[in-house]
Design goal:
By secondary structure, this protein is mostly helical. 52% of the residues lie in helices and 3% in strands. The protein has one domain (35-185): Endonuclease III, domain 1 (Orthogonal Bundle). The chain has helices spanning 23-29, 38-51, 56-61, 63-69, 75-78, 83-90, 99-119, 122-126, 146-157, 165-174, 186-197, and strands at residues 4-6, 12-14. A two-stranded antiparallel sheet has the order 1-2. Zn(2+) binds at residues 14, 27, 181, 185.
Length: 202
């Protein structure tokens, strides 16, 4: 059984929540619940890209600043960002000021806009890579999978950047394409019920 830690109510949560108290609300209300909203999916891809080499604690603490800086992660708006926006973002102390990741986010917004035109929605595309739950490893023991490798490869083929297999796997964990809550975590069953009721986008 994967290690757990008592939550604020005394019930067990995934052990990684013990890192900081702010992780508990994120864990209880967001992480692993299935998402079909294109803006939320795009936001998560971007934030996972920004996290590369950093901690999720850093990104979560700055998430509202990121949202303000990147037009709420409305990819149709971000796709129109230009050189002046890059200059503005590089001067924004509220976000991670990494030129490559900033430029990748703008590029990925343009690729997202193209994807919606070709696929109907980001959700329809991403959920094609949902693995069979019977093939999943023990919770929180993997950082990549054959599905995350395939998704990463497909995104890169379409011109997306900063979307390696590990980044994509973390995205899949968070957006509910897999239920990676620890065995013994009280939210594992809650998330599983949400996944069972979730209507997969097509």
């Amino acid at each position: 059984m994967t290690a757990t830690v008592p939550g604020p109510d005394g019930r067990p949560r995934c052990f990684w929540c013990s890192n900081i108290p702010e992780f508990f609300p994120y864990h209880d209300h967001e992480w692993g619940f299935p998402v079909d909203d294109d803006v939320r999916l795009f936001e998560k891809v971007c934030l996972e890209s920004f996290q590369s080499g950093l901690s999720w604690r850093t990104i979560l603490a700055k998430r509202e600043n990121f949202r303000a800086a990147f037009a709420g992660f409305d990819f149709n708006r971000v796709a129109d960002f230009d050189a002046s926006d890059i200059t503005r973002l590089l001067a924004d102390q509220g976000i991670v000021r990494h030129r490559g990741k900033i430029e990748a986010t703008i590029n990925n917004a343009r690729r997202a806009r193209e994807m919606v035109q070709h696929e109907g929605s980001l959700a329809a595309f991403f959920w094609r890579f949902e693995p069979d739950s019977k093939d999943l490893p023990e919770p929180q023991t993997a950082t990549t999978s054959k599905e995350s490798v395939a998704l990463s490869k497909d995104l890169k083929k379409r011109g997306w950047k900063f979307v390696g297999p590990t980044t994509v796997y973390a995205f899949m964990q968070a957006m509910g394409l897999i239920n990676d809550h620890a065995e013994g975590c009280v939210y594992r069953e809650v998330v599983e019920q949400a996944r069972q009721q979730f209507k997969r986008p097509v």
